[in-house]
Structure formats: C-alpha cells, structure tokens
C-alpha cells in the first residue's frame, strides 16, 4: 500500500514519470474487546457495563458491521436494520454505533466470555480473543438443620447451614444469630453447642456471605427440653421441736415439659384429700435465663398443726422419712430427695441418783449420776453453786477426797439445743 512511480532508463540517463499511482490495499479487521468498568462487578449493584470492539489492524479501520458473541454463541449483529413501509429509519438498533455493546443492570446471567468480529469493505475479520465479564453474586438461599432432633439440657446440639449454590466467588463465610444476638465468633457453616442451656431454647438464624453479598437467611427454632432435676434438695436430717406451730418442707424440681411432685412418708404417698395432718402448696416458676434454669415446680409440704392431738407432735414417735418425688417427663426419669425427721423436745424429768451425800472428811464419795429425758440427747455438766465454773462433764460426778470446804450444793445442768433443766445434790463433809 502506498504511492507508486515508474522510472525510464537508457544509455543516456534515467527519468521518473510525471504521474504516480496510489495503491490502497484493503484487508479485513483484527479486533479486540475493551470493557468498562473492569471486572468483577457485583450483581446487587446493577452496574451498566460497556463493551467496545476495538480495531487493532485493518484497512479501512472503520467497521461497517460487528458481531457480538457470548461464550461462542452469536448474540447480536449490529447495525440491526429492519426497514418497513411504515418505518424507513430501520428501527432503534439501526443507527447505533456497532462497535459498542451496552449491558444494562448487569447480574449473574450476563457473566461469561465476550468476543466480537468486525467487518469492513474488505470483509469479515477473525473473531477476537475472549474477555471475561466476571459477576459476583450472593449464595443461594440458606437452609439450616439441627441434629439430634431431640435437644436436652446439658447435652449437645449441632447446627449446620447449607446453600445449594455458593455464588461467586465461592469462598463463603457465615453469619449466625441466636435470637437477635449476632454470634460474631462463629463464621463457619457448622455450629456446635455444648452444653445446651436455656439460652439455646431460641431461634437460630444463618446467612451465607461472599463478596457478592448475602444469601436469604434461614431460621430454625431449637426446642430444648430438660429432664427432672432437683436443685433445692432436702437436708438429710432435721430435728423439729414438738411444740413448733410452723413446720414445712420445700423442694423444687426443674423439668421441661413440666412435671408434678408427690410427697411420701416412710415410703407411702401422702393423700392430701384424706389426711388432714398435712397439706401441700405448689408454685410454678418461669424459666430463669441468668441462672440457666428451665421452668420448674416448687412443692411445700406443710404440717397442719391444728389437726394434731394437742396441736403438738408426738414426742415418743420414732423418726420418720419424708420424701419429695417428681414424676418422670418425656425426657428423663423422676428424681427424689429424702429427709429424716426427728421430734425434738427440751430436757425434762432430770434427777440425780442421790440427793444428799454424806462423806467423811478425807474420803472420796461414791459417784453421783444425773439422768434426764430430751431430744436431741442431753449433755451434762456439773457445777458447785450456780455461778461456778463446771467441775465435771458427763452424767457422773466423780469427786476425790473431800475437805470441809467442799461441802455444799452441786448442780447437774442437763441441756440440749432447746433448753436446760437442773437437778441438785448436797454433799455434807463430816469431821472425823
């Protein structure tokens, strides 16, 4: 391609022609695809992307037609002119620049390899090298499942968040919520809870996330049950004063679903409808999140002292075992707690084996014993006169050889936690 002249030459010399000829060699175009903006784009942004079929070589360089391909399939050939008797303009795509392909509100369906092919007066050139339009889009809607299906306090539960499509890019992380609280420490698809507690009894929500955005969330309610468990146990043993007017025992059982409580005396169920000596009060407690306690039932066994003979307990009755026992629920067996109850009474019938002891000076008297009744068992101490320090502890008073000044009243103090009762013995030290 260029301007050509001819030269004539003989023996005398050489001369160039006055005229020249311009040779214009036309050839089909080589093209490339330019993209704006550069990828990747995000589907959620609904970005407009412009593709340009740019001529890298070809004569002439202006293109009369352009074919656009997506993943090797022909999309459009521009200009697209459809002349009719009513429309001599050729339609909306007839006057457009064929080198420009405008993609509007791009989402993941636009993703792929784009190529173009240009035509000039010399014909169609080769198809360009592909350029990929990368569209980031979020994962498909999440789905959450848990196992095991029966969730029990103190055990474990596993939650798993799944998506059918990871979206693009496929490096997915996860957002987890318990109720409205985001658990920022968990970013994987699996969440293991151990031990299960009251706060587990909640909605759990998971969302899959990649650079393209967030999936639709999935929510699952975890219903946690609790087997019967005692957390206010009865004491193993208790003594009750026979004249007490307010006597009761209380136990509390956590269980979800809620269970009921029965009371037993010496292994036999107390029938409150036919036994006037006792009655029962029951309180249902709501769950306590701070203490991790599920719903619970509190039962109080109350002695109806107005129905007891003389409004008092029988002091001679043997110790009795009282049991608080829960029924089972669907989650676990019943639980129980037992207390041994003894009837207490203060010291009474306290006496000494000898009220007057005569002893010769210098000799030791025979031991004097102190006896009495009471519950708990009595303890004994001996004093000389009421204000003196104890001389002896125990039922027996053993004195050594006595002198005249040892004469006097010796007091036996018999005590338990409910009181003290005294008995006295008089020692008369006689001269030889």
Report the helical percentage: under 10%
CATH topology name of the largest domain, in short, is: Immunoglobulin-like
Structural class: mainly beta
Morphology: rod-shaped
How many separate helices? 0
Unreliable residue stretches: none
Number of domains: 4
CATH 2nd-level architecture of the largest domain: Sandwich
The CATH homologous superfamily of the largest domain corresponds to Immunoglobulins
Report strand %. over 45%
| Average pLDDT score | 93
Number of distinct beta strands = 37
Membrane topology: Single-pass type I membrane protein
Keywords: Disulfide bond, Glycoprotein, Immunoglobulin domain, Membrane
GO molecular function: cell adhesion molecule binding
GO cellular component, one term: cell-cell junction
What labels describe this entry?
single chain; 5-stranded antiparallel beta sheet; Ig_sub; cell adhesion molecule binding; Immunoglobulin-like; mainly beta; 432 residues; 7-stranded mixed beta sheet; glycoprotein; disulfide bond
């Amino acid at each position: 391609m260029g301007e050509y002249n001819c030269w004539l030459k003989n023996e005398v010399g050489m001369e160039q022609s006055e005229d020249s000829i311009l040779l214009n060699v036309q050839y089909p175009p080589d093209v490339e695809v330019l993209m704006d903006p550069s990828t990747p784009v995000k589907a959620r942004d609904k970005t407009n992307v412009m593709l340009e079929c740019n001529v890298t070589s070809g004569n002439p360089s202006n293109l009369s037609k352009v074919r656009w391909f997506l993943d090797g399939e022909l999309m459009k050939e521009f200009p697209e002119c459809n002349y009719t008797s009513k429309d001599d303009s050729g339609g909306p795509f007839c006057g457009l620049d064929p080198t420009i392909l405008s993609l509007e509100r791009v989402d993941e369906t636009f993703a792929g390899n784009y190529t173009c092919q240009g035509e000039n007066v010399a014909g169609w050139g080769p198809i360009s090298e592909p350029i990929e339009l990368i569209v980031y889009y979020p994962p498909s809607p999440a789905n959450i499942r848990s196992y095991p299906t029966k969730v029990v306090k103190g055990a474990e539960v596993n939650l798993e968040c799944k998506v059918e499509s990871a979206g693009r890019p496929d490096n997915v992380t996860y957002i987890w919520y318990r109720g409205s609280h985001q658990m920022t420490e968990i970013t994987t698809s699996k969440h293991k809870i151990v031990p299960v507690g009251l706060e587990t009894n909640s909605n759990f929500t998971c969302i899959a996330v990649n650079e393209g955005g967030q999936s639709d969330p999935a929510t699952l309610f975890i219903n946690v049950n609790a087997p019967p468990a005692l957390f206010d146990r009865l004491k193993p043993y208790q003594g009750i004063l026979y004249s007490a007017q307010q006597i009761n025992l209380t136990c509390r059982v956590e269980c979800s679903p809620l269970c009921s409580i029965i009371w037993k005396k010496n292994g036999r169920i107390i029938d409150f409808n036919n036994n006037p000596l006792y009655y029962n009060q029951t309180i249902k407690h709501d769950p306590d999140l701070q203490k991790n306690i599920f719903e619970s039932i509190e039962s109080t066994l109350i002695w109806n002292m107005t129905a007891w003979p003389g409004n008092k307990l029988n002091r001679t009755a043997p110790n009795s075992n009282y049991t608080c026992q829960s029924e089972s629920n669907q989650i676990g067996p019943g639980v129980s707690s037992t207390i041994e109850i003894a009837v207490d009474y203060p010291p009474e019938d306290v006496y000494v084996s000898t009220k007057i002891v005569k002893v010769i000076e210098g000799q030791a008297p025979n031991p004097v014993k102190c006896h009495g009744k009471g519950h708990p068992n009595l303890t004994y101490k001996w004093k000389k006169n009421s204000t003196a320090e104890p001389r002896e502890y125990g039922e027996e008073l053993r004195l050594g050889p006595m002198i005249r000044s040892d004469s006097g009243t010796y007091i036996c103090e018999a005590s338990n936690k409910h009181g003290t009762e005294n008995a006295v013995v008089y020692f008369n030290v006689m001269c030889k």
